[in-house]
Design a protein that fits this description.
62% helix; mainly alpha; 102 residues; elongated; single chain
Length: 102
């Protein structure tokens, strides 16, 4: 009986945990697979880039930052002789699609 109650409690807790983790409708993390120029950024720059993207509340401000950041990464890549892949999706566009911006 006690084991059954524990299992039921855990099953009921899963939706609560997931809703708190994803409640804002946008759960995204920068990583080497979805961030063009990841290898050209220091760990501190990566952390700052992710925090900045997560902090935007307007699409235009996000796009302005993203454009500046992309230009900086392209300049760094040219200096270091690195060929960057084409960006599949701008993070600001992805955030807008997810409804992050009003």
């Amino acid at each position: 009986m006690r084991q059954a109650i524990t299992i039921i409690a855990l099953l009921l807790a899963i939706p609560l945990i997931l809703s708190s983790a994803f409640g804002h409708g946008w759960c995204w993390t920068c990583d080497q697979h979805n961030t063009v120029g990841w290898q050209l950024m220091s760990p501190e720059e990566r952390k700052d880039h992710q925090a900045r993207l997560a902090g935007f509340t307007s699409y235009s401000a996000c796009k302005e930052y993203s454009s500046r950041h992309q230009k900086k990464i392209e300049e760094r890549a040219a200096t270091e002789g690195v060929v960057l892949p084409v960006m599949r999706e701008n993070p600001c566009d992805a955030m807008r699609t997810k409804g992050v911006f009003k």
